[in-house]
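Most newcomers find our protein records easier to grasp once they have seen one. A learned vocabulary of local backbone shapes supplies the integers on the structure line. Here is such a record, shown just as it appears in the course material:
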Amino acid sequence: MQNNREELELQKLKYEAEIKAKELEIKAKELAVKEQELAEKSKPTKKSFFSSSPVGLAILGGIITIFTDIIAKSCEHRLNYDMEKKKMHLAILQKSLETKDPEQMINYLSTTKKLNLMGDIDSNEVNNLINIVMQKQKDSLESAINTQIPKLFSDKPEEKLQAQVIISQNPALADEVAVKAERTLSKNNFKSLKSLIDSAKTVNPTRNKWIIVISSDKTIKEAQTEQNKAKELGFDTKIYKRNELFMTAVGDYETKDQCLKNLFSIKQKLNRDAFTVNKINWCRKEFEENKNEGYYECK
């Protein structure tokens, strides 16, 4: 959690520095305008009504003052607008870090971007935020797994199955917890625990099949149009026929984490309503591709 706070503090410092840089840039422009005014005033001019009479000089001075005020207020308004925009951008990023789920955070950022409530944000910045939220989620899951591991030894079948399912969904994290537990367990007890964890991993063998669904169409031709759009942008896609609809999806991804790190980019480039699914849980079974139509059928 300390790392999360440090990351957030770095984000704050970064945007505060950008705001200061923008302030200096606008101050420099104001200075340039004033220098130009002085240069114009210092140029020799032919005597005219404005320069030869007190009334003319007063009128000229008033005109110069009005234009100077207009320029100064314009610069001030631009500065305030840029500062407020940066503050809004930072506030949205901070708010996104309060989400508990990375996909919820991506949906939040995608929506605020669509509404023009924040500035440009690239995939690297999104991935940094995803990593922070994932770490928070990992800390929470680790705590949950710690409470589930003793249930692997339970005599109650339902309790034991619940623990097995949670561990099977988070195999790498379960191994980390086991390594930490090794310090406090005897050799035999650790061996038994490791065996139970390895057995639990097989409860859900379909966990490593993740895809991003980008469209749902009534006809194969409509789905193929969406597929071609995605292919033109370099995405590997397939079409699945599911419940009489043709679903176009990007992937496969080995882990949900990999899937999530591509989701924001796909939402920006293809469809803001794109979402992630575990392919085998979602499709149940992937049949041979229909070579005539070019899709996989789910049943």
In short: The longest helix spans residues 54-96.
